[in-house]
Amino acid sequence: MGEDDNEAPIFDVLVIGAGPTGMACAIEAQRAGFRSVLVDKGCLCNSIYHYPSHMTFFTTPELLEIGDIPFPSPNQKPNRNEALEYYRKVAEFYELDVRQYRFVETVTGHDGDFSVSTRDRFGREEVLRSRKLIVATGYYDLPNYLGIPGEDLPKVNHYYDDPHPYYDLDVVVIGGKNSAAIAALELWRHGARVTLVHRGPSMHRHVKYWILPDIENRIKNGEIAAYFSSDVKEIKTDTVRIETPHGSKEIPNHYVFALTGYHPDFDFLRTLGVHLDGKDMQPVCDEECLESNVPGVYLAGVIVAGSRTNEIFIENGRFHGRQIAADLERKLERRPSPANPIDAVALTTGSSEASTSQLPCRCSDRERFVAN
Questions:
Q1: pLDDT tens string 286-304
Q2: What CATH number belongs to 10-141+262-371?
């Protein structure tokens, strides 16, 4: 449908979620000649921002790259701050339209004309219209709660940040995967008295090979107390009650880190009409183009795997934008606009169609990006 001068302009693509995957989707849509906008309830790369302040990625820089922009790093594995700087520069280079701190309240309309009602942190409403939607909301915002008494106490955290505030305190870490192992080790090394509680018989088999021996040796040496095949049943003001294979045990406690994982926003997907399949709550979508059962609504990133959040990461989710953009090229007609860098190239060269093979990042641009 056409645009009315009295109505908000219609974007070609609206991406919900401005993390690396959402950014990659917007970039690929832009490079294909479509006007895109990103909306996020937090800041750019909000999940990475809320990672532990000294976190190091498990992967190498080139596997975190998006938009054919190199990720320069002196480290074999980049850290959180390097990643945030990199993605800021990518957003700046591509002049991405990112609406930060805007919570999506409702989505109405249909394929070809969606209306997304957002509200900022001051309660002001803005309605954005778009022909297509891409949902790339990740999963780090929603912890897997334990559902036990005392979980709502202020001493309980579902996110680990920095070990210093817990020096000389009794800290319980719940979980058996990488995040729990790293938190337990860092807390112990910074002077906390750490107890690890995990419902499994041992540390999870997916714990990284350079972390596993460290945590196992600390437990073996008695430097970190550990209760396996055990569950925290109740959290009290000064203690934690644990159910172990040898009976119930109550230990002194000042703080609890319940690092039991996170899950996608399934409720939001349901409000869009997206069907969730089976016990894994995997959204129904086309494997090739990633369009969901709702026409015009695409899914990208970890939400594609449902509750199996250990299957999709930045490393492979960053390519979802290309799959979606290819489908957009088949289904959407481009509408030239000088505000779009790709369209500007087309208008300058006299081409009636924006080239999908020409990258905004030419060789000289890549060199300049690294140099800066």
A1: 999 999 999 999 999 999 9
A2: 3.50.50.60
Which residue do the tokens 């109405």 mark?
Answer: 108
How far is 310 from 35, CA to CA, in rounded Å? 32
pLDDT average, residue stretch 57-78: 97
Q: Domain segments of the chain: what residues?
A: 10-141+262-371, 156-258
User: CA–CA separation, 21 vs 102, rounded Å?
Assistant: 18
Mapping DSSP to helix (H, G, I), strand (E, B) and coil, where does residue 73 land?
coil
- Please count the other Cβ atoms lying within 10 Å of the Cβ belonging to residue 131: 23
Reported in sequence order, the residue ranges of the chain that DSSP labels E, i.e. its strands, are 10-16, 36-39, 98-99, 102-110, 113-120, 125-135, 156-157, 170-174, 193-198, 225-228, 231-235, 239-244, 247-252, 255-258, 276-277, 282-283, 297-299
- Which residue type occupies 248? S
10-141+262-371 and 156-258 share one CATH topology? yes
Q: Is 254 helix (H, G, I), strand (E, B) or coil?
A: coil
Taking 90 as the threshold, does the pLDDT of residue 82 lie above it? yes
pTM of the model: 0.87
- Coil, strand, or helix at residue 238? coil
C-alpha–C-alpha distance, residues 18 and 36, integer Å: 12
* Strand (E) or helix (H) holding 37: strand 36-39
Q: Which CATH superfamily is domain 156-258 in?
A: FAD/NAD(P)-binding domain (3.50.50.60)
**What gap in Å lies between CA 230 and CA 11, rounded to an integer?**
52
